[in-house]
Design brief:
By secondary structure, the chain is an alpha/beta fold. It has helices spanning 92-98, 116-119, 122-131, 147-157, 159-169, 232-237, 254-260, 265-274, 278-288, 308-316; strands at residues 15-18, 53-59, 74-79, 82-88, 106-110, 139-143, 178-183, 188-192, 197-205, 208-217, 220-224, 243-249, 292-299, 322-325, 331-333. Residues 113, 115, 205, 227 line the site of one zinc ion (ZN).
Length: 335
């Protein structure tokens, strides 16, 4: 029988729900609201008949630098065809398209922390979905303090285009189709829409704090670490999950990164103090008893001399289970 995870529920005070939908704000979903009730008719797309849960790696390179074979951090979890996006690094929209995701079934976006490689394309993803005609019912976005401001500022920055399209093309105001929920760091329930139950754990990522997210679905559970220093608490949070997607740092690559970025000790210390080495990721996976470890958010993620085998071997020093060295657009189903 599948072990069940029962995290404590966030107190209302811990949730700073922020509405961007004006008068409609009173109708905003509280955690626990059922978003499916607002969706369009079933059976109109291929994804409507999709059953099961899978993780789709949209971008697997850690850091904001663009280039190389991997796109910047972004993930999707697809449950019975419903799409949940976790992090919005540069390129997320194009990657979602390439992955064949049905963005009309995007239900919610989760942001792990406010480093740009995780939120730079947050506004653009929503805009692009809207302008493609796929944002027709309200979606929710969850993340740390600052996310609501980011959304507000995005609408302001693009107000000329948006209001032109509303007047000229008869579109709905996209700001009314997004509800942003900020929450402060504490372990607990973030959202339960009747399809997935999402909980969060605050984990250190100096000088920021990161939110790891756990998705419990009818088919099993998926945990996404976000960016984190080595944190055994994360192993408890991820206990007995089916898939643990964990950021990973290759220590012998750090000096090359520092040199290429023309940086010094401060940059080196940031990398070393705020991320988890592949060896320590293996420890977390073992402590968590995860069925499958997926390495992602590779740092460095664009140096070809670091092979898949090197990543795998480093993690395998401390984890004897299945290790997937993640690739962009890879879809990993819960078995
Ligand atoms: Zn990152
Ligand atoms: Zn970060």
């Amino acid at each position: 029988m599948k072990p069940q995870f029962h995290p404590p529920v966030l107190g209302r005070r811990a949730l700073l729900r922020t509405s961007l939908v004006g008068a409609a704000g009173a109708m905003l979903a509280l955690p626990g609201a059922r978003l499916l009730a607002q969706t369009g008719p079933a059976g109109t797309t291929d994804s409507a008949s999709e059953k099961g849960a899978r993780l789709v790696l949209l971008g697997t390179k850690g850091g904001p630098r663009v280039g190389g074979k991997r796109s910047n951090p972004a993930n999707a979890i697809v449950v019975d065809g419903n799409v949940y996006i976790i992090d919005c690094g540069m390129g997320v929209t194009a990657q979602a398209f390439k992955a064949g995701l049905d963005m009309a079934k995007m239900r919610a976006i989760f942001i792990s922390h406010m480093h740009s490689d995780h939120e730079l394309e947050f506004g653009n993803l929503i805009y692009n979905t809207w302008v493609a005609g796929d944002l027709r019912t309200r979606i929710d976005a969850y993340g740390p303090k600052g996310l609501a401001d980011m959304a507000r500022n995005y609408w302001a920055t693009h107000s000329s285009d948006i209001h032109t399209r509303i007047a000229d093309e008869g579109r709905k105001d996209p700001a009314t189709l997004l509800a942003v929920h900020e929450f402060e760091g504490k372990e607990g329930l973030v959202m339960d829409d009747g399809v997935v139950r999402v909980t969060a754990l605050t984990t250190p990522h100096p000088p920021l704090r990161d939110l790891a997210y756990r998705f419990d679905t009818p088919y099993g559970s998926i945990v996404i670490s976000g960016d984190t220093a080595y944190n055994p608490e994360l192993a408890k949070f991820a206990r007995d999950c089916d898939i643990l997607a964990h950021e990973t740092l290759y220590l012998p690559g750090v000096e090359a990164l520092v040199e290429r970025a023309h940086q010094g000790d401060a940059f080196r210390n940031h990398i070393l103090n705020s991320h988890t080495s592949a060896q320590d990721v293996g420890k977390i996976a073992t402590q968590a008893r995860t069925k499958k470890l997926v390495l992602t958010h590779f740092v460095p993620g664009d140096m070809d001399w670091i092979t898949d085998q090197m990543w795998r071997a480093a993690a395998a020093e401390n984890f004897s289970g299945e290790i997937v060295v993640g690739r962009d657009l890879q879809s990993i189903a819960i078995a």
